[in-house]
Amino acid sequence: MKLPSHDAAARTPGDGGHRVHLPHFPAGPLRQVARRLSLALLVLVLTVAIVYIDRAGYHDNADEQVDFLDSVYYSTVTLSTTGYGDIVPYSDSARLSNILLVTPLRVLFLIILVGTTLEVLAERTREQYRLNRWRSALRDHTVVVGFGTKGRSAVETLCATGLPKNRVVVVDPNHKVIEAANAEGFAGVVGDATRSDVLLRAEAQRARQFVIATQRDDTAVLVTLTARQLNRGANIVAAVREEENAPLLRQSGADAVITSASAAGRLLGMSVQSPTAGAVIEDLIQQGTGLDLVERTVVKAEVGKSVRDTEDLVVSVLRGHRLLAYDDPDASPLRAADRLITIVRAPMVQE
Which of 165, 180, 249, 279 is deepest in the core (most CB within 10 A)? Predict the structure, then answer.
């Protein structure tokens, strides 16, 4: 059942259609047209110069004289292969220059004229080949629904933790948003993510995880239901504005729900009481700078040790489905199947 929504992620796209857009960086259309016109003009100028220099070897049926205007006229009709026959070369040198110079220039001129059509056909074939190869190679990727502030920040965090850009597919109904995602190196699908056919274009059935960052909570619920129906084993993380809608999202199939308004409010309250503590929390959730909050497996050398004996600062221990605090007596000794949530220094990145 589809519910009406005014959310940006639930509107039917206008001119984009439900198409996949892969990142590419072609030259601007005006620049391509200007380049082609410049080449065509250069060919015309060369032809006019060749004919005008050897104008004595040409015969004009009108006045038997070939001047500069006649040279331009002859070059134009010759390059366009019209050839009215009113001006013809009759000397050996003029005929030889037509064979060796004017004819190759005529061929080059035709190539420039039909080059646009050929380029369009080649571009379509190349784009279809890229799309087919992309679909066949896409596995265990991340689908990001909504590329606004929340979605973009989530992608930046994922990429900072090592996720390659070619393993991210952005879904958004706004064509310009997808173009912005393409400019940053991400593949994109223009369409309504509450529709299963749109998510299938993003290869949702083979995705490892979903990040649902829509503007409205009801849209997030519909997208979560659709994603869970297509992919039973994927990890789905969704954002909601109101905390009362979080249980509904979990019932819809979300593995984790982030309440954006409440989280921002808590951070604001903490910063009022302790600006330094708020800065530390902000640093922890911003991957790649300062301190990072990461989850990792227990290494072999740490098995059997206490939580405090590890090299990293352990915050919690994930044992099965239990999350144990660092000071919980059951957290130590560490086991081989445990996972640690630790605070580590972000690696220095050299540009």
Answer: 249
